[in-house]
Design goal:
- This protein is an alpha/beta fold.
- It has a seven-stranded mixed β-sheet, sandwiched between helices. The protein has a six-stranded mixed β-sheet with strand order 10-9-8-11-12-26, sandwiched between helices.
- Strand 4 and strand 5 form a beta hairpin.
- It is globular, with a radius of gyration of 25 Å.
- The N and C termini lie far apart (58 Å).
């Protein structure tokens, strides 16, 4: 382990040319009203989780800096979005669906040109390995394509008229207004765009604030945003949320709040809105997803899924398995297999082939994880894997904790990092009580092969979490499936087609089924005198 830690962080000359950094990027641009504006005020220094060797020392890499906009500047971006929406009368919300799709397709084409730049910054800014960084970029592009196709399908089904009880009507979806979109640092591109793109394509105007880490990787996309959408439709701001976002919410001009983060932060921001009944929210929040290993189980599969579920991207996923309940009859065998699987995970820098364990981007995270491990061991748990919990700079080697019990912090707190708490159980009711009493209800995983037990647990947990995974880790995908949660874990449902509905409202145009009215509607449609009232069929 000492050799690993000593050789973990590279010298500059050892980094492949394709992924080596140039000079630090001083970003002063932000996007408002279709213009890239320059910020001449204070900047926030952006650090990388990667450290470099210099002589006998190691120093954290400074990637660059980003604007620390003030509240007044953030409000200018909001005003640009409000003006572009123009109380629903703006060009964008009244544009035909096919035309909005063309704008999004133009953006996607420009975005794909920046793949190398964005992938590189994903590795340097948040420590995501090359394979997963490429996957995040490509998955985001695929999501945009799927969203376009889902909207075409929705619009085709909305293009017909319905006749009910003598009333002729057409039901279509209309935008809600101005959306504020904020994403998380662990998926600063993909998770952000799963709200940003649906909000835009449904005709809303948007103020977008990038994640607190992963902020520079949006810079290569600013020109694409500017050139692909009408002025004011998409506005990109930076800065501290407590100053900028608080001012946006307090203005009362935000109609849709799309946020992925903690439930406390979401609640605090929603409280600032003076008309909360007018605020639509799409929130992805905390989770403490349990994996439950039953006595009748395929242990090899359970371990494979649990290791990936708990430690993929160092456990920094809302869908990660945050706590494992393992029946006493199989605990020893499960833990032995888990330790061997964990030991095979390669640690290193994000661009190195086959690397699974990388440095952590969040300042103070290593110290926090050390606190959780110290608390657990002080209350009777052991670190089972060799070198578990060792750290250097921003790197923390995973710690497998056993036996974990209710008196330990890690039993309750969402660690959001490479600490794996394992709880032994004899009575399944203790596990059921944990799920029932939890403040969170995103997902859980069941590992077992007894149909009666699995069937009973599905019924028990169906009203507790948003997704039950059988013999598989917790996860978001496929993106066509609903992604939601109960309790403090989410508000609203996101999937490709659900998101289109979250960012819009059904609007009905109706008339009495009479000859004069039929003639009137027919003439409006024939002469294309309405963008909303139409029977256009998008292929």
């Amino acid at each position: 382990m000492e050799r690993l830690l000593d050789s973990l962080f590279p010298r500059l000359e050892a980094i492949p040319d394709a992924w080596r950094l140039d000079a630090p990027l001083e970003q002063r641009d932000y996007l408002v009203g279709g213009e890239l504006r320059r910020w001449d005020g204070p900047l926030n220094t952006v650090y990388s989780p990667v450290w470099l060797k210099e002589g006998s020392q190691e120093r954290q890499v400074v990637l660059g800096s980003a604007p620390l906009l003030d509240a007044d500047t953030a409000l200018t971006a909001l005003d640009a979005a409000v003006d572009a929406y123009d109380k629903g009368r703006g060009k964008w919300p009244n544009m035909r669906v096919a035309e909005r799709i063309q704008h999004v397709e133009a953006f996607l084409a420009r975005m794909r040109e920046q793949r190398q730049a964005v992938v590189k910054l994903l590795m340097w800014e948040i420590g995501k390995n090359l394979k997963d960084s490429e996957k995040e970029f490509d998955r985001t592009c695929d999501y945009i394509v799927d969203t376009i196709n889902a909207l075409k399908d929705l619009d085709r089904r909305s293009s017909r008229f319905e006749l009910e009880q003598g009333t002729l009507g057409q039901i279509r979806r209309a935008p809600l207004g101005v959306a504020l979109c904020m994403g998380p640092y662990n998926y600063p591109l993909n998770e952000t765009f799963t709200t940003l793109i649906p909000a835009l394509i449904m005709g809303n105007t948007v103020v977008f604030k990038p994640a607190k880490f992963g902020v520079l990787l949006i810079r290569p996309l600013l020109e694409a945003f500017r050139d692909s959408f009408p002025p004011g439709v998409i506005n990109v701001i930076y800065g501290r949320g407590r100053e900028t976002v608080s001012a946006l919410m307090a203005s009362g001009k935000i109609d849709v709040f799309a946020f992925i983060g903690t439930h406390k932060a979401a609640s605090d921001l929603k409280k600032l809105h003076p008309r909360p009944h007018r605020l639509r929210a799409a929130l992805g929040l905390d989770a403490k997803n349990p994996g439950i290993v039953l006595p009748q189980v395929d242990l090899d599969n359970a371990v494979e899924e649990a290791v990936t579920g708990a430690l993929s991207f160092n456990g920094q996923r809302c869908t990660a398995l945050k706590i494992l309940f393992v029946h006493e009859d199989v605990a020893e065998a499960f833990l032995d297999k888990f330790k061997r699987k964990l030991a095979d995970l390669k640690a290193g820098m994000p661009w190195e082939p086959g690397v699974a364990l990388t440095p952590l981007p969040e300042p103070g995270k290593v110290a926090y994880l050390n606190e959780l491990v110290a608390d657990a061991t002080a209350h009777g748990a052991q670190v089972l894997n060799e070198h578990g919990g060792r750290s250097r700079g921003s790197f923390f080697y995973p710690a497998l904790l056993y036996p974990v019990s209710a008196g330990m912090r890690v039993y309750h707190e969402e660690q959001f990092g490479p600490v794996v708490p394992v709880v032994p159980y004899r009575d399944l009711q203790t596990v059921i009580d944990y799920v029932l009493d939890s403040d969170y209800g995103q997902q859980l995983s069941l590992f077992g092969n007894d149909p009666a037990t699995i069937g009973s647990l599905v019924d028990t947990f169906a009203n507790q979490v948003g997704r039950i995974n059988i013999n598989a880790q917790c996860q978001r995908g496929p993106d066509t499936y609903p992604f939601n949660g109960r309790k403090n874990s989410a508000e609203g449902t996101l999937s490709v087609h659900d998101a289109l509905r979250v960012f819009s409202i059904r609007t009905l145009v109706a008339t009495r089924f009479q000859d004069a009215n039929k003639a009137l509607i027919s003439e409006i449609i024939r002469n294309r005198q309405s963008s909303f009232l139409t029977t256009d069929y998008i292929f």
